[in-house]
Amino acid sequence: MTQIKLKQDSAQAFERHIAFEGGIEKYVPVYFEHNGKKHFVINNVVTTKYKEEQSRERIDGFRIQLEANDGRYLCFYGKPEVWDFLKLVKTKGYTFENFTKLVICNSQYGMFYEFHGNLRECSYAFHYRIYDKRMFCRLRKRLPNIKIKDYTKEEEA
To answer: How far apart are CA 39 and CA 24, in angstroms?
Structure first.
């Protein structure tokens, strides 16, 4: 099992006004390095002690996931193993909602891919962030009818 260390980039921290709470939240980008590349994970909320503790627990869960799959992807919600999720979809005959997408993103911490959306028949939301290009290409081949949004370019692919 690969050891993954998640790091916070305090130099890139930013604040946002939260209208419904009437306050300001501070966010600190979290990333990890794997195979010589940096990969963005999330923007960690560090405004209150409670939110900071919640974020720390969530980040630790992400670290465990990344270590278990050699830093290839994260499951934010859905079935933890993406291939098991696709097997479930096929076995049950489920279909994806129209807004389901494969997304190509680029950040200051490198490129990553996302697969997120919902299943039509059972309102099953899912969200995976993929760091492994080969894995993304395999997903793309298995899901030829899913729209691809490329945020590294200005138009949809």
So the answer is: 26
151 phi, psi to nearest 5 deg = -80, 0
Tell me the pLDDT band of 123, cut-offs 50, 70 and 90: confident
DSSP state of 11: G
**∠ CA 54-67-9, rounded to 5°:** 55
Residue 50 has pLDDT above 70, yes or no: no
- CA distances to 18, 81, 134, 144 from 85, rounded to whole Å, are 34, 6, 18, 16
Torsion of CA 34, 37, 42, 43, to 10 degrees: 130
Longest dimension (CA), the chain: 47
